[in-house]
Amino acid sequence: MAIRRELLIILALIIVIAVLVKLVEFFRSDIVEADASNFVLEDLREKYPAADIGIVSILEEYNDYGGKYFEVKARVTQDAYTPCPKRSHIFYNYPDQNFVPQPPAIITSNCHVCTTEVCTVAFPEEAIIASHTFDGTEKVQQYLTVYPNSHPVVKEMDDLWSVSWDFEDADLAYIVKIRRDGRIMDVLEIDK
Fold first, then answer.
1. d(Cα 169, Cα 34) in Å, to the nearest integer?
2. pLDDT digit string, tens, across residues 46-92
3. Cross-sheet strand order for the sheet of 160-166
4. How far, in Å, are 122, 123, 150, 172, 184 from residue 160 at the CA level?
5. Domain range summary for the chain, segments of one domain joined by +
């Protein structure tokens, strides 16, 4: 009877220890992911102080030795509220690994989008550029020539982007609707 009681006590202790180990692992991984996010945002603020920044994704990975690290994909948008925003994706490994991280991916630069035949307007910065550079947007191009300080407002809808152009002293405003496949659906001229 005493042996049975001792076995039950030992079994109960093993279960408690297993639960505690799992809880510690759970909280430790959350803290590390938060640390990765904070590290990346702090680094981006230092490197790109005037840019609009954000985390796109964080993936938990393991190196060849079983060590856990996070692959962080971040977004940097310079000149975000201009006709020609510059967007890039910056990649980090946290903690740092013994290999060279992926170079930045340039999404938009030099006010160009869809320079190949296949076009996908996947990001708001691409929609802004497309709204005044694609065929059919000539009126918006002229508007921005007259009102170069106009600020775009982008809204994402099902399969569309809606980009509004307005300048407070202008008599007109424009709304351009762009499909994700790069086709201009509509250019609405609005009297104010």
1. 45
2. 999 999 999 999 999 888 888 888 999 999 999 999 999 999 999 99
3. 151-156, 160-166, 172-179, 184-191
4. 10, 11, 22, 23, 10
5. 2-106, 124-191
Which pair of tokens denotes residue 29?
């991984």
* Rounded Cα distance, 108 and 84, in Å: 8
Helix (H) or strand (E) holding 59: strand 52-62
What tokens appear for 181 in the block? 């496949």
Predicted confidence (pLDDT) at residue 187 exceeds the cutoff of 80: yes
Closest CA to 71 of 79, 62, 82: 62
- Write the burial class of residue 37 (CB in 10 Å: 0-12 exposed, 13-18 middle, 19+ buried): middle
Residue 108, judged by CB atoms within 10 A of its CB (0-12, 13-18, 19+), counts as buried
pTM of the model: 0.77
Q: What is the rounded (10 degree) CA torsion for 18, 19, 21, 22?
A: 120
